[in-house]
Amino acid sequence: MDAIDEAIIRCVVRDARATYAEIGKAAGLSPSAAKRRLDRLVATGAIRGFSAVVDPQAMAWHTEAFVEIYCTGNPTPAALRKALDDIPEVIDACTVSGAADAMLYMLAKDIPHLEQAIQRVRSTTLVERTESAIVLSRLLTRPRL
């Protein structure tokens, strides 16, 4: 990966619907050269896909929380992912170092909805307990690279 590839990636992270002309301009390429480079980034897996970023406020899901998961036994990350996969309020899940086994980012309509979602997380056989921190205000959000 070189500086041109990085410029292309920055452009499509900022706007996944950017035209080849816009991508080319950002990377110093012609539109056709930008298309070839973008296609190569997709083919090699450097870019795994394109997605829409939905404003949670538009869905009227205003309550955010970070939830630490403490597991029973020593489940694999794949088993933990499978247990959480059917809970749509879990937006992000990562295994972490430290006392907790995993950290979730959850989004819900309101506190009762969040409580129900956390109960579904706790009801999986892999989870012994959880600890939650509710987001009061969002200070900074950046697009992911």
From TrEMBL:
Keywords: DNA-binding, Transcription, Transcription regulation. PANTHER family: LEUCINE-RESPONSIVE REGULATORY PROTEIN, TRANSCRIPTIONAL REGULATORY PROTEIN (PROBABLY ASNC-FAMILY)-RELATED. GO terms for biological process: response to amino acid. Coiled coil: none annotated. PROSITE patterns: HTH_ASNC_2. It holds the Pfam family HTH_AsnC-type. The keyword Transcription applies. The lineage of its organism: Bacteria, Bacillati, Actinomycetota, Actinomycetes, Pseudonocardiales. One of its GO terms (molecular function) is sequence-specific DNA binding. SUPFAM superfamilies: Dimeric alpha+beta barrel, Winged helix' DNA-binding domain. One of its GO terms (cellular component) is cytosol. The keyword DNA-binding applies. Residues 1-62 form the HTH asnC-type domain. This is DNA-binding transcriptional regulator, Lrp family.
